[in-house]
Amino acid sequence: METTDYKTIRQTLHEHPQTAGNEQFAHDYIIQHLQSLHPDRVYTHVGGWGVIAVWGKDPQAPTVAFRADTDALPIGHRCGHDGHTTILLRLAELVDSYVCCNIVATHNILLLWQPAEETGEGSQAVLESGILQQYNIKAFYALHNLPGYPLGTVVLCPRTFAAASTGIIYHLDGRETHASTPELGINPGLAVAEIINRFDGFNKSEGEFRQSTLICVHLGSPAFGTSAGHAEVMFTLRAFTNEAMEKLLAEANQAVDEMALRYNLKVSRMLKEPFRATENDGDCVEAIERAAEELPLRVRYQMEPNRWSEDFAEYLLHFKGAMFGLGSGEHHPELHHPDYDFPDAIIETAARLFLQLAQ
Question: What is the per-residue burial (b if ≥16 Cβ within 10 Å, else e) of 270-309?
Fold first, then answer.
């Protein structure tokens, strides 16, 4: 694979966006490029359409792992996963050259192209495959491009890189009745109003960050002769640590249970797209800083975590590691914006930084 082809490679991936669970093109494209290289082991269809390539023959040897995500949004590759995938393809070429020259011989290097990041399901599916657990992973790294920062700047978060979040749906069941005799039924409308007001109060709490965002409300049906008997209310909850997220979720559930009891409603709940907080290991953050300075690259610390979520968090519950940002440009369109496109200029920068960590 010629190094001059990486802009074309990224653009080819960009032209074939596939959403979570449907990343067959990316899977096959990655396999195609790995065929020109010399990894000691390649695993296909990992956790769906994931790929793992390993340089090193002894699974018990210390292993440094790297992850890229491959899925797109329904509006296309508007988050940069096409660029992340390309970065790891370039890293594969660099690692292959170093291994063939016997420069890297003391440890394994593992590259993971992961599907279904946007839904938070991909990392768990990869972990459930059991492949990563076969290796003695000592450090696990990933990056995400960050609009709003100078191009190529390494952005470090000393603890949490990305917030914990979860969608939650509450079903409130009362009893329908004729609209002329609402006192004979159980209408959940007032309970919904109080729940919305109570959840808004979570945003005004002092101390560590937590957030509640109202997403959707369904109440009754457009039948003017019927008093509503069922409601659904949906929120996204968010916090900067896993501990804070557990407390927020418990407080939210308690508030809804209290409303259901007050208004004689039955309540059930369902979590949707839960993400843990991406909590970095301090030693790995320092390793990224050292690697960046050796290249050299500009380093900036971001003291507050990103409010969005990342399913790389699941790996950090099992292995030491860290996630960091790489600037996409101070005036670059934001992630998920219709005008967003990954900046090809940082592909080589990111791959070289990963290589420095791999060594």
Answer: eeeebbbbbbbbeebbebbbebbeeeebebeeeeebbeeb
- Model pTM? 0.93
Closest by Cα among 87, 155, 146 to 329:
146
pLDDT tens readout for residues 53-85 = 999 999 999 999 999 999 999 999 999 999 999
Res 103 pLDDT > 60: no
Helix (H, G, I), strand (E, B) or coil at 54: strand
The C-alpha angle 305, 306, 310, rounded to 5 degrees, equals 110
pLDDT tens by residue, 38-48: 999 999 999 99
Q: Using CA of residue 119, residue 127, residue 37, residue 151, what is the dihedral sign?
A: positive
Instruction: Return d(Cα 304, Cα 208) in angstroms, integer.
Output: 11
Q: What's the pLDDT score for residue 1? A: 41
Give the residue from 235, 251, 275 where a domain finishes: 275
Q: Quick one: 154 and 170 in the same domain?
A: no
Give yes or no: residues 37 and 91 share one domain: yes
Domain boundary among 275, 291, 322: 275
Residues found in the chain = 359
- Tokens 């004689």 belong to residue: 264
